[in-house]
């Protein structure tokens, strides 16, 4: 077999990134496409998502857009069908879509935290990520793929004192949702190990995005590099059932 024929016979690696019309998700999509992958950029907003995909495709990447709201079962099913029909496999799933659950510019006391905010934050950051992963399991198993759950360094019991989450009652919805996501990563990793699918939680660091009113100390490019690094690492280079930050494995 000639080299060109062998190359054509090898399927292009595929990736799906949620919450990718801007910020970290958009940059993760850009970097994965730069590695030669076919990237499905997803977002809730059709107009913004389409514009982001078109911009990245103009840079030479193989990127297409699909509408996805991880809190809507209908769009989850639609995206799973699209992946199956277009690719037949999924090498990388990056669960990046998330909300802060914090009212910008305010620090609400414990008594004023809305239970509805808690529910909606968990629904997006935790339940939605699980539902999408579950729907994409057939494609992930076919590829022996990788699931990367984008988490936060705040989602660790080791940082619940001082200036950490303990100092902000209104961070309860966000921190709780990311802790739940971390635990899901551990359990999914065990459940999927025999199928060849690997799972990890990765914190990109304190990245300057609209979620934190651009107060972060890292650029989206640097934050995305951390996520992409572990999204593309060989299975034997991925710490087992670990919570990973840009500095390496973090305590739970």
Largest sheet: 8 strands, mixed
Strand content: 5-15%
Tertiary shape: globular
The percent range for helix content is 40-55%
SSE run: HEHEHEHEHHEHEHEE
Instruction: Report the CATH topology name.
Output: Rossmann fold
| Continuous helix count | 8
Query: How are the strands of the largest sheet arranged?
Result: 3-2-1-4-5-6-7-8
From the N-terminal CA to the C-terminal CA, the straight-line distance is 49 Å
Architecture overview:
There is one protein chain. An 8-stranded mixed sheet has the order 3-2-1-4-5-6-7-8, with helices on both faces. The chain has a single domain (3-100, 129-156, 178-250), classed as Rossmann fold. 42% of the residues are buried. Helix 2 packs across helix 8 (220-232) and helix 5 (115-135) runs parallel beside helix 7 (172-192). Helix 8 (220-232) links the parallel strand 6 and strand 7. The termini are far apart. The protein is α/β, with parallel strands linked by helices and 252 residues long. The longest helix has 21 residues, at 115-135. The chain is globular and about 55 Å long. The chain has helices at 3-9, 23-34, 46-58, 73-86, 115-135, 137-143, 172-192, 220-232, and strands at 14-17, 38-43, 62-67, 92-95, 146-150, 198-202, 243-245, 248-250. Residues 1-8 have low confidence and may be disordered.
